[in-house]
């Protein structure tokens, strides 16, 4: 036999194997059938791959939204061998996350996630049970309580102040008369949120290189755990396990690197505690080490579990706050009228203040509407974190089989014309008189999930968003680059995590008459103080930024 034909036939063997296996499982008499079950409707399936081809060429949450318009609020799909249930309406989401919440409170674990958490699960991926309840109690009562979040206020204010300084330094050339540079707001916001989160979690001892390393680990965790690999789609196939050896080694290497780094972070804290170098305020690692030492727990709090919880807090806190801040700025740039209203409110409240502080953020109702509308239009995780059905149950008249993966399309719900007027329009005023909120009770609006598995770090992340956005609007006006028409941007949410293009803007200052002007340029510190004093005493002037001759920002000189 010709060698070419031989090798072609050899290559076809795995395909024939998968095809026969898939047909057997789909047959009425096959071992994969579930006789007597009334499964939800869904799109047609192909052998082997199931329904995956329906997601081709589009973001998953958009493709699933389009499918739900044809097949209904509850759909049944197959991702390879994996049965998947997709909920796309508030009624279906409420059934899953409230009425039958206990049945759907565990997480399906991909191969990457199993590898990463093998030495100890954190709060995000821990299976539903007593161990998860213990971690949840620690998070809600100790790490992310209202008292703890409030105690971190000085950290947030300091980092928000540094964000303003970074923008001012980036625009020093414009103040000197040169062409205004584009500022990558997304990058500056990422640094602000990362620094705030790490300062709160790791304490004063974290280094800039630690921030960059952890940002890399967070990005890698999203990449590794956020999708499906062949091993996840065909978990029963020994052939796929053999062919996935390279991917397995990559995940193992990531696991080793991550926890080697976290070992070093904990070692620094333990050494400080042994040497008696206690600080006035506990960071979140100190809190976990204290709880571990007290020992009043049903399950031991091992070092690996502490590291997993800490990484969950870092990743969750950074991703949500960064995404929301980036999209808020992008939408305000597209809608100059809304930006003007938000700025007028912030500047009216903080006109007599030296800087934006948290104690008066409650006086900014329109800013809160802007944040709510951003969360509605750009859900940080469009499909939320997957859940798994622990026992067969009935939802909206259909049977959900045990072991099925469950996805809630929060993005589709928040953009449904059945529940929102002009759902694709950024319109903060829609929430005036609308009591719907994002805290898990209104299933038309669930950017943080709902039920037992609602995001525990919601307050922690939102505190960063509120202060950061207020600071950017108070100190600066913002304009689009030349040639870009407001509202014409076509950037899309890439997997719901961030903007697919950089958020490039031109920050301007406010002149005496309230129009965009060249700003305040001080040639020396004494002159800067005189200029600052003049601005602070004139109610018709808006303090914006003070820049030295070398571009050093001095917002701390404000009176």
Helix content: 40-55%
Enumerate the spans where pLDDT stays under 50 for 5 or more consecutive residues: 5-12, 22-33, 488-502, 509-559
Give the total of beta strands.
Answer: 14
CATH architecture field of the largest domain:
Orthogonal Bundle
What is the structural class?
Answer: alpha+beta
CATH topology of the largest domain: Cytochrome p450
How far apart the termini lie comes to 90 Å
CATH 4th-level superfamily of the largest domain: Cytochrome P450
- Rounded mean pLDDT score: 80
Gyration radius, rounded? 26 Å
Q: Please state the overall shape, judged from the principal axes of the Cα atoms.
A: globular
Number of helices: 20
β-strand amount: 5-15%
Q: List the strand order in the largest sheet.
A: 1-2-7-4
Largest sheet data = 4 strands, mixed
Number of self-contained structural domains: 3
Task: Walk me through this protein's architecture.
This protein folds into 3 domains: about 1-35; about 35-510, Cytochrome p450, CATH 1.10.630; about 510-559, no CATH class. With about 550 residues, it is α+β, with helices and mostly antiparallel strands. About 50% of the residues lie in helices and about 10% in strands. It has 20 helices and 14 strands. Residues about 5-10, about 20-35, about 490-500 and about 510-559 have low confidence and may be disordered. Belongs to the cytochrome P450 family. It is found in: Membrane. This is Cytochrome P450.
């Amino acid at each position: 036999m010709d060698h070419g034909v031989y090798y072609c036939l050899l290559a076809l063997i795995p395909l024939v194997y998968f095809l026969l296996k898939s047909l057997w499982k789909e047959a009425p008499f096959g071992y994969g059938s579930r006789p007597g079950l009334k499964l939800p409707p869904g799109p047609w399936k192909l052998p082997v791959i199931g329904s995956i081809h329906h997601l081709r060429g589009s973001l998953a949450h958009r493709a699933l939204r389009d499918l739900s318009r044809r097949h209904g609020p509850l759909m049944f799909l197959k991702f390879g061998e994996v049965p998947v249930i997709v909920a796309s309406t508030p009624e279906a989401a409420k059934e899953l996350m409230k009425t039958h919440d206990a049945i759907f409170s565990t997480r399906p674990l991909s191969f990457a996630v199993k590898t990463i958490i093998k030495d100890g699960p954190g709060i995000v991926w821990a299976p539903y049970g007593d161990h998860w309840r213990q971690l949840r109690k620690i998070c809600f009562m100790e790490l992310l309580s209202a008292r703890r979040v409030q105690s971190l206020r000085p950290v947030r204010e300091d980092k928000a102040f540094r964000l303003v300084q970074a923008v001012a330094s980036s625009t020093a050339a414009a103040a000197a008369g040169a062409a205004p540079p584009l500022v990558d707001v997304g990058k500056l916001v990422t640094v602000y949120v990362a620094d705030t989160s790490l300062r709160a979690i790791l304490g004063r001892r974290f280094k800039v290189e630690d921030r960059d390393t952890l940002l890399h680990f967070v990005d890698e965790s999203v990449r590794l755990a956020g999708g499906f690999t062949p091993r996840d789609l065909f978990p029963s196939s020994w052939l796929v396990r053999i062919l996935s050896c390279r991917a397995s080694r990559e995940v193992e290497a990531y696991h080793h690197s991550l926890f080697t780094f976290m070992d070093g972070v904990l070692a620094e804290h333990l050494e400080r505690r042994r040497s008696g170098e206690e600080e006035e305020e506990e960071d979140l690692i100190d809190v976990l080490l204290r709880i571990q030492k007290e020992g009043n727990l049903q399950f031991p709090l091992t070092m690996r579990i502490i590291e997993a919880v800490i990484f969950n807090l870092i990743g969750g806190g950074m991703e949500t706050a960064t995404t929301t801040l980036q999209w808020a700025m992008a939408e305000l740039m597209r809608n100059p009228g809304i930006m003007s209203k938000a700025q007028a409110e912030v500047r009216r409240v903080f006109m007599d203040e030296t800087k934006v502080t948290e104690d008066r953020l409650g006086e900014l109702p329109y800013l809160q509407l802007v944040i709510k509308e951003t969360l509605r239009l750009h859900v940080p995780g469009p499909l939320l974190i997957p859940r798994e059905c622990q026992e067969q149950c009935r939802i909206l008249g259909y049977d959900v089989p045990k072991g099925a993966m469950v996805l809630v399309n929060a993005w589709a719900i928040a953009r449904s014309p059945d529940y929102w007027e002009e759902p694709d329009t950024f319109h903060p005023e829609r929430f005036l008189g609308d009591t719907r909120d994002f805290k898990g009770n209104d299933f038309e609006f669930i950017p943080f999930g709902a039920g037992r598995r609602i995001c525990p770090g919601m307050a922690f992340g939102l505190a960063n968003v509120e202060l950061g956005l207020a600071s950017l609007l108070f100190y600066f006006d913002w304009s689009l680059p030349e040639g870009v028409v407001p509202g014409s941007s076509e950037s899309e949410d890439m997997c719901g995590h961030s903007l697919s293009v950089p958020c490039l803007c031109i920050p301007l200052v406010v002149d005496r008459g309230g129009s965009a002007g060249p700003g305040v340029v001080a040639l020396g510190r004494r002159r800067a103080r005189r200029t600052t004093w003049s601005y602070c005493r004139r109610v018709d002037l808006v303090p914006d930024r003070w820049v030295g001759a070398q571009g050093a920002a001095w917002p701390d000189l404000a009176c």
